[in-house]
Design brief:
Layout: H1 8-11, E1 19-26, E2 32-36, E3 40-45, E4 59-65, E5 68-74, H2 75-78, E6 91-97, E7 100-106, E8 108-116, E9 133-139, E10 142-147, H3 149-156, H4 170-176, E11 180-184, H5 188-201, E12 204-208, H6 211-223, H7 228-231, E13 232-237, H8 246-255, E14 264-268, H9 272-282, E15 286-289, H10 293-308
Parallel strand pairs: 2-10, 5-7, 11-12, 11-13, 13-14, 14-15
Antiparallel strand pairs: 1-2, 1-8, 3-6, 4-5, 6-7, 9-10
Helix pairs in contact: 5-10, 6-8
Length: 310
């Protein structure tokens, strides 16, 4: 399983079909964990590990992988369990999130499974704020916990909501004041960061935890006679969510005559080249990497300018 990912053309076949692929793995216990294959570059035996001074406690060190220096994160320790002990037989999962590459030390990798987002459920409400699980599913009569990698990375390197003076002007604030944005994401970390940025721009933010919840809200407004494309400046949606992903949400919006003119932004931690293919396939107006406050502010400004020019 040295190379988990297929070509972009093969991966796009899942998009718009409300499907995903999960890599299942273990952390030295019976519990099965998973992350989305879309975020994975490869699975390897741990190369030579170099210790770094002043590193975060859950970072084992760095390895050089394909001419890139990659931090190796002890995932078991990062989510509150006993740390794994790295050795030459250890396995790492190399991932890309939000334009950064990092590897996660795991005990073992099991398999890749193809599922529908309807099979992916929110974590139990009693899981508590310290739980690093963004969703759960079932495979072979076992519970699979899908790791909230964005939260793991935010603990190591907190995300900022600050918008620079060059990206945020008084004119933007005035024009944006009172306009509404629907923000769709299942990650509390991503929701918090995006809300912080959008509110600084002057926008009112309405949230939904997944694509199905968002679509039901949009249909409710439309059924009540609301001109939804006029009501909302834009819909900013994550790609990966339980029940209905952002790609299917966009497809459903485009298929509804009352909603089809909504401006939809795919807000995701997936790589840029992949997202360009996704945007074209499902009909999003734009895509944006997560945790880039200046770019989010610039996108809002561009959208407002285009409306003013009409």
């Amino acid at each position: 399983m040295a190379s988990v990912l297929d070509s972009v053309d093969q991966r796009t076949k899942l998009v718009g079909e409300n499907r995903l692929e999960l890599l299942l793995f273990k952390l030295g216990m019976r519990q099965i964990f998973a992350i989305n294959v879309f975020k994975i570059q490869e699975v390897l035996k741990l190369p030579n590990l170099t210790q770094m001074p002043h590193r975060h406690p859950v970072v084992c060190g760095v390895s050089h992988i394909r001419d890139t220096t990659v931090p190796v994160i002890n995932l078991s320790q990062a989510i509150g369990f006993r740390p794994l002990q790295p050795d030459k037989d250890s396995t790492i999962i190399v991932t890309e999130y939000n334009r950064t590459v990092q590897a996660f030390l795991v005990a073992s990798v099991d398999r890749i499974v193809n599922m529908t987002w309807e099979q992916i459920l929110p974590p139990p409400k009693g899981a508590g704020g310290s739980h690093y699980v963004t969703a759960i599913t079932h495979y072979n009569d076992q519970i699979v916990e899908i790791i909230d990698v964005e939260r793991v990375l935010a603990d190591i390197r907190p995300y900022s909501t600050d918008v620079s003076d060059t990206a945020l002007t008084e004119n933007i604030r005035k024009v944006a004041q009172g306009r509404e944005v629907l923000l769709v994401d299942d990650s509390p970390v991503a929701i918090s960061q995006a809300i912080g940025t959008l509110q600084k721009v002057g926008l009112k933010v309405i949230t939904a935890r997944n694509g199905l919840e968002a679509y039901n809200l949009l249909k409710k407004w439309a059924d009540e006679g609301v001109n939804v494309p006029e009501k909302l400046l834009m819909v900013v949606t994550d790609a990966e969510m339980p029940a209905m992903d952002g790609y299917r949400l966009t497809t459903e919006i485009r298929n509804d005559p009352r909603l089809k003119d909504l401006y939809v932004v795919l807000h995701t931690s997936l790589s840029g080249s992949f997202n360009k293919a996704m945007v074209e396939k499902v009909g999003c107006n734009n895509f944006l990497s997560k945790f880039q406050p200046d770019e989010l502010a610039a996108l809002v400004q561009s959208r407002l300018n285009s409306l003013a020019a009409r």
